[in-house]
Amino acid sequence: MTPLDWITAELNRLSREGLLRKTRCVRPLGEGWCEVDGRRLKNFASNDYLGLAGDPRLHEAATAALSECGSGARASALVCGRTEWHQRLEQRLATFEGTDAALLFPTGYAANVGTIAALVGHGDVVLCDRLNHASLVDGCQLSSARLRVYPHGDIETVERELVKAADARRKLIVTDSLFSMDGDAAPLKELWDAAARHGAMLLVDEAHATGVFGATGRGLTEESGLEGRPIIKVGTLSKALGSQGGFVAGPRALIDWLFTTARTQMFSTALAPAACAAACAALDVVEREPLRRQRLLSEAERLRRRLTSSGLQIPTGTVGPIIPVLLGDPEQTLAAARALEERGHLVAAIRPPTVPRGTSRLRISLTVQHTPADVDALAADMIEVLRSHPS
């Protein structure tokens, strides 16, 4: 017997429940294709919404920075890891977002955890949507603030909790803008109005919306008409922008505060300069090529209508490139995903704890690299597979 024997028993339990994760080797092939454990598949599981991760313009920019600065930043930004490329990207992000300043983090996860913990603590109250990303939930829990989890998108509960928190030192509302597993949008305008009425801060994670929504690609805050408000905007460079890392954009005082106090920024090695250069190039593409996001959203809506009209269960209110198809049972979800792989499609099988029990699903992620023919083939095969694997 060893102190680690319990792990084997727990792994066996997860396997019986269809919840055990297994590693796989994935090789991007371009044009929406990938190779998974030697099998060539059309990739409907990627967050590379605008197809920029393989764009030669990003590669050229990254190569230039790699030649100039090497492969790593060598230290945290606070010590000596903030290069000209980091400075350039932060300035570029601030301009893009229309804010005073921006601050880079090693990942979007680190941006959320570090920012929330730097804004609230003991004696404060933080309100968190039940379906927020794990990084937002973890940031709330680690902050030491009094946590109030509200039902998904429930403004009435937010109002009640803010009233009860009237005497709190600080109040913070935390929400995704586009929810990564349900594909629906937060009621940002109503959340802002509630925050303004009660003197609360509002943090919006635009991870899945940056580059995809809004007239200029700034996300759902832009699309909701909230530009210019003192909102704490968190984003990622690793989805539509095709690079890696996270960022926060907002007033100069906020950014100065986070640079001085956000532990995940202070105690992490800074982003590789090549990632910064690639992200700068990606922002140029987002601004110059709006047809990419317009085509993406149009194709996603077409697929959503087809699947819904065929009787598949898609959550109401979904928008954008994330299209979840609810099945409920994790084993059935895995079986359906395997059947789709046999037909040449990689679709993510999402199970607890990523989503609540009883809501396992296939999660389709469209990108601009998917042609109408690709989408039609996926829809036809998914309808056939799910009719033979009913939930």
Strand content: 15-25%
Q: Average pLDDT, to the nearest integer? A: 96
Main sheet record: 7 strands, mixed
| Helix and strand composition category | alpha/beta
Strand order of the largest sheet: 4-10-9-8-7-5-6
Number of helices: 15
Let me know the number of strands.
14
Rounded to the nearest angstrom, the distance between the terminal CA atoms is 41 Å
> Which regions have little confidence, pLDDT < 50, spanning 5+ residues?
none
Run of helices and strands: HEEEHHHEHEHEHEHEHEEHHHHEHEEEH
* Large-scale geometry: globular
Alpha-carbon Rg, integer: 21 Å
> Could you estimate the helical fraction of the residues in percent?
40-55%
